[in-house]
Amino acid sequence: MANWVRHTKPSFVSEVLEFARQDDVISFAGGQTLDVRLCMTEETKEAYETVLNESAKDILRYSQSEGEEELRRAIATVLTEEWCPTHKDDVVVTNGSQQALDLIAKAFLRPGDVIAIESPTGLGAISAFTPYHPLFVAVPCDEEGMLVSHLEQVLRQHRPRFVYLMSTFHNPTGRTMGLERRKRIVGLCKAAGVPIVEHNSYEGLGFHEHSLPTLRSLSDEVIYVGSLSKTLSPGLRIGWIVGKGPVREAVKLGIQATCQGISVLNQRAAAKLLLHPNYKAHVGSLVAAYAERMDALLQAVRTELPEGCTWRSPAGGPNLWLRLPEGVSALDLLSLSMEKNTVFLPGRPFYIEEHPESEQTLRLNVTNASSERIMEGIARMGESLRQLLGVPHPVLTRS
């Protein structure tokens, strides 16, 4: 087996996610599935039926390496409306954003090359980049993302192959980078000749009016990665890369070497859904549902968790990053919570370095649980946390 296979230990995260699939479990673990009540179910059926009726013979072929023109045009339209002006010829369609990250790594990385990456960062990026044997250099972050002074030092000392970051509704922390920080990071990387990979799968899911430009809109040298998994369905397996000509050509070569193209049927159906008259209303409903659930989650952590827990309310997306009291391990809390049929993802897998907060942090995701289930799940976690702390549950914390 390859070195990365032999040296990569199976992650307990997959076990947690499998446990979370059970109907009687309240899951804050992640968004691998969407709440079907929030999906465009009827419109999706209609889209597939229309594609099959209109072009049954045409969809039985291989797709173009860059993806179907109809879908690339639809993606460009949506991105342009989301502060990322895009032309269809800049877009390459991928099998979800996970394949997009893999293709970028395939195009850029040689063994030992440096990637500058946020701390903490998304599990998907760590998994996608690891097989290419990079050297990860963690850049410390605050509530707005990468600290400019630290990034400047990393660029100067290591000259990474690229900088990977999530500027909007970051996974796992939920933070959003401010405008001045965006401009400074783009300027620094451009001056250093180091590309940025901006991964924004939660773009468009802001709870309030969102008017921040993407990093891609500030420089066409930024490589932009997105997905329909968070707005339509992860089962569609539709993602994309937006980049300049040499990046697009390298990514197309990667697709030809890996899978010869994405399902034409799925691409055609996805294009119809993106251009459907109900799509914007659907995203609005999704945002309203996540905002309601996030409000319920914030209320629950305030009332059900003991003192010493800290968090920052996100401006959008489904994730809340929470820090436990000193001396409490998120893994120990997970173990007790699972006994009460409640799960979340502890912070440790989101760090690529030994970080002092890695054992005390956790991510809570509201993709699948109703507000009522959220309240009950956090109450169970509160009981487990008090058990670890040896603190009695206060009387009448719940109405």
Write the layout of secondary structure elements.
Blueprint: H1 3-7, H2 12-20, E1 26-27, H3 41-55, H4 69-81, E2 91-94, H5 96-108, E3 114-118, H6 123-129, E4 135-139, E5 141-142, E6 145-146, H7 148-158, E7 162-165, H8 179-192, E8 196-199, H9 215-218, E9 223-227, E10 239-242, H10 245-258, H11 264-274, H12 279-304, E11 310-311, E12 319-323, H13 330-339, E13 342-343, E14 345-346, E15 361-365, H14 371-389
Parallel strand pairs: 1-13, 3-4, 3-7, 7-8, 8-9
Antiparallel strand pairs: 2-10, 5-6, 9-10, 11-12, 12-15, 14-15
Helix pairs in contact: 3-11, 4-11, 5-6, 5-10, 7-8, 12-14, 13-14
Structural features, described:
The protein has helices spanning 3-7, 12-20, 41-55, 69-81, 96-108, 123-129, 148-158, 179-192, 215-218, 245-258, 264-274, 279-304, 330-339, 371-389; strands at residues 26-27, 91-94, 114-118, 135-139, 141-142, 145-146, 162-165, 196-199, 223-227, 239-242, 310-311, 319-323, 342-343, 345-346, 361-365. By secondary structure, the chain is an alpha/beta fold. The protein folds into 2 domains: 3-30 and 280-389, Aspartate Aminotransferase, domain 1 (Alpha-Beta Complex); 42-274, Type I PLP-dependent aspartate aminotransferase-like (Major domain) (Aspartate Aminotransferase, domain 2). β8, α9 (215-218) and β9 form a beta-alpha-beta unit. α5 (96-108) packs across α6, α12 packs parallel to α14 (371-389) and α13 crosses α14. Mean pLDDT is 93; it is low at 395-399.
